[in-house]
TrEMBL record:
This is Protein serine/threonine phosphatase with extracellular sensor. One of its GO terms (molecular function) is phosphatase activity. It holds the Pfam family SpoIIE. The chain crosses the membrane at residues 248-268. Signal peptide: none annotated. Residues 373-601 form the PPM-type phosphatase domain. SMART domains: PP2C_SIG.
């Protein structure tokens, strides 16, 4: 406890010194940030003033809005002084020197703005008035164009280059002109404005070491130099604080390390003595062949190490006995499990072989793609039983009636999946084949006969079974394009020009029901070119999404189908829907047998005839 207390005290001292130096360094860094912001603002203001002074096109703007520029300049200096006062919390010599320089700079800048405003450039100031006079001379005395052009050239060269030789040349030409009798009196006013521009530009630029611009530049350089020196001192102070902090940390770390070594030696020595005694006692206990523990009981230290040793010895004896029993029991059970696994693997292999063979048999009973291609322009089928075999099946027959080729197609979803569903699907296909062979062609009559036959075959006098199937049957004429539909709890969708027409089946299954149902009704409509027939079992709409844990749903299926463009191929629509369905399902478990078909009928071309039949009843939804 003493060692831990001393070590904790050293850590507390270390943390206190670290906090103190970090606070001081943080203050210096904050001061540096403020100083850099102030320097940046002063540099921006300097660039602004240099641009106004050296770029002649600013002169008109300054002459026009001199008071606004003065207010802007005064506002900038107020901000600079506020930041300067924020940096220097207490008045010192640096603040006084920088403040005096800033006062001089503001005074000189007011003079520079006044000079610039007086000079002007195009329409304002002395230059504007001077050019107004010379334009009047050009209009009044066109015979003096050459002389006026020469004067304007000297005037422009002087303004652009600030060279006194051009001013002297202009004066010399005017003096020569005065000797002539046709000397215009307006030239005296022109010369007066030119001399005013000349005197202002001399004040601004020409007077050696005493013009406004040079004085302003010198004061601005002084302020920036003082700020750089101040920044250097702050950086040096921060560096010194860092060095002091590092030295203190080294000293405290050395003390802590020394205390840690001393405490560790003390603790290790104490523990080593107890461990040596414990080791001797354990050797004596082992030498007695685990028969007597009297010696170890008397020689164990009266602390946690002694208690742990006693419990360990008790546990070791019990573990040794229990381990022997467990090894014997595990050996017997391992042999039994191995025999069971061999039997299960054999049974599983036989069962899977049977299911694969049953899968091939069931697939052979379904309509082949070659048969579908004979009667449909395009036929896309997604048929995936949950297990190898399933309760979904699709069935098709073609026949001629009244001189027209007709296609009879059905999709069914039998109760359950796997082997029971597969048996029901075979029963359903065989029953449909028998009914078709008996001459039944209409979808509603097929459903009525199918329901009666299925009920008779799967039910007995002792038990009324609830098994059955949901089914959709439609028949269409290739020539007239007339489609008849009847359904038992399964719809038929027609995708037409980005719209989905839904023919709903009746809410009665093929099988036992408590409802009093007499017969199925048939719905009909006329198909159009590029119509796509869509039938599906509830395995696709009841599939749960891996991420959302929600069903795929008819709403989402209808939305994807309704987004199809006019004349879009069935393959594009099918691929987009299957990609969306696969993304929705992800790696999740398949919920049920899943079957989805998109069929594009193949019609017989009939010239000069238009067949159009109305929708039979209100059960058609768009």
């Amino acid at each position: 406890m003493v060692v831990l207390g001393g070590f904790g005290f050293v850590l507390l001292v270390f943390a206190s010194f670290s906090w103190y130096f970090n606070q001081r360094i943080h203050e210096k860094q904050s001061l540096l940030i403020k100083l850099d912001n102030l320097s940046s603002q002063i540099q921006e203001h300097k660039d602004w003033m240099e641009e106004i002074t050296n770029q002649r096109f600013w002169y008109d703007s300054v002459a026009k809005n001199e008071q606004e520029y003065r207010r802007k300049n005064s506002f900038t200096h107020e901000n600079i002084r506020l930041k300067l006062n924020d940096i220097f919390s207490e008045s010192n010599q640096n603040q006084v020197l920088i403040g005096q320089s800033l006062n001089n700079i503001q005074l000189i800048e007011d003079r520079i703005l006044n000079d610039v405003a007086k000079i002007g450039f195009k329409e304002y100031g002395y230059i504007g008035k001077m050019r107004e006079v010379i334009h009047n001379l050009e209009e009044e005395f066109p015979q003096f164009d050459q002389q006026i052009l020469s004067l304007r050239r000297h005037e422009k060269d002087y303004i652009m280059r600030n060279d006194e030789n051009y001013a002297k040349s202009l004066h010399a030409e005017i003096e020569l002109w005065k000797l002539r009798k046709d000397y215009p009196a307006q030239l005296n006013q022109y010369l007066q404005y030119f001399d005013s521009v000349r005197s202002r530009m001399q004040l601004l630029f020409a007077i050696q070491k005493n013009n406004h611009y040079s004085t302003w530049t010198a004061n601005m350089t002084t302020v920036q130099s003082n700020l750089r020196q101040l920044r250097g001192r702050i950086i040096q102070e921060s560096y010194d604080l860092s060095n002091d902090s590092l030295k203190i940390q080294y000293i405290i770390s050395g003390i802590a390390f020394l205390a840690l070594i001393i405490g560790s030696i003390y603790i290790i020595r104490n523990i080593s003595v107890q461990v040596s005694r414990l080791q001797k006692s354990m050797n004596d206990f082992i030498a007695s062949n685990y028969q007597s523990d009297e010696t170890i009981t008397h020689q164990l230290p009266k602390n946690e190490i002694g208690q742990i040793s006693i419990h360990f010895l008790k546990m070791a004896r019990k573990i040794k006995w229990d381990l022997h029993l467990l090894e014997d029991r595990v050996m017997r059970r391992t042999i039994a499990l191995h025999e069971k696994n061999v039997q299960l693997e054999k049974q599983h292999t036989e069962m899977m072989d049977s299911l694969r063979y049953a899968q091939k048999l069931q697939e052979s009973l379904l309509v082949s793609r070659k048969q579908l291609a004979q009667h449909f322009e395009q036929a896309h089928i997604h048929y995936t039983p949950k297990n190898l075999v399933g309760g979904d099946f699709y069935w098709m027959k073609n026949f001629r009636e009244n001189g027209s080729d007709k296609i009879l197609f059905a999709l069914a979803d039998c109760t359950g999946h796997g082997v029971p569903g597969a048996l029901l699907s075979v029963l359903g296909m065989n029953t449909l084949d028998e009914l078709f062979a008996d001459g039944i062609r209409k979808p509603n009559e097929l459903l009525d006969s199918l329901r009666k036959t299925i009920l008779r075959r799967i039910s007995s006098s002792e038990e009324q079974r609830m098994d059955g199937m949901d089914i959709a049957i439609f028949c269409f004429d290739k020539r007239s394009r007339e489609l008849h539909f009847a359904g038992a709890q399964m719809p038929l969708w027609i995708v037409r020009n980005s719209e989905v027409i839904e023919l709903n089946g009746e809410r009665v299954p093929i099988g036992f029901t408590y409802m009093n149902h007499l017969e199925f009704k048939s719905q009909y409509l006329t198909l159009e070119e590029d119509d796509k027939l869509v039938v599906f079992t509830d395995g696709i709409v009841d599939q749960f999404g891996m991420e959302s844990n929600k069903k795929f749903g008819k709403k989402q299926l209808r939305y994807i189908l309704s987004r199809s463009l006019n004349n879009q191929s069935s393959s594009v629509l099918y691929n987009r829907l299957m990609n969306q369905f696969a993304f929705w399902k992800g790696e999740g478990e398949q919920t049920d047998d899943c079957t989805f078909l998109i069929l594009e009928p193949k019609f017989v071309k009939v010239r000069n005839s238009k067949l159009e039949l109305p929708i039979s009843n209100g059960k058609v939804e768009v």
